[in-house]
Amino acid sequence: MEITWLGHASVCINSRDVLLVTDPYDSSEGIFMSPSKADIVISSNSDPKHSNTSAISGTPRIIKGPGEYEVSHFYITGTGTAGTDDEQIGTPINTIYTIRVEGLVISHLGALNKKLPAAQMDTLRQTQILITPISGEGSLNKSDLQEVVSAIQPRILIPVQHGSSGPEGLQQPQEVLTDLGFTEIPDPAPRLNVTETNLPAELQIQMLRR
Fold first, then answer.
1. Contact 4, 188 (CB under 8 A)
2. Would the CA dihedral through 145, 97, 174, 50 be positive or negative?
3. pTM exceeds cut of 0.85
């Protein structure tokens, strides 16, 4: 299985030539999303930075919101959480997606920026690969992100939505990850190739570049 970063909070998961894209974004937000093709598109909320499905060509299955979905050999569970600010009327719900494919469990936090209740945290404990925004609106603060990572204990952490490729104002990933206590931050790679048998024994940061 191959994971690539498309910019902002969007990644592409390629499993046996079936493509799943998360959170396609509107290029008018200051970052350009290259034209992409997918078989499955998942959107964590209705914000244009997470829901621009028109950026995806072809006729993908589009998934928006909580529920259980089976598409090809992907098994997807969406768990609803508070939106980017649940004190504001009309704020969209956020959906955390857990994706089971090729014996791996991948979770994408979407635009989560509220501390998760214990019951929702428990639903993520089987996560082996955690994809999370680390900067800007729609990301957890550092202490809450530390709590999520400590509770879930994923094998691989993929930071997205940061200043190395995005709108002005987002923090650089090295700054955020250093503040989180990570001392060894690898150089970004163009893709992550991972299987059930080559997962690292302990938590590993995987930086991706566009």
1. no
2. negative
3. yes
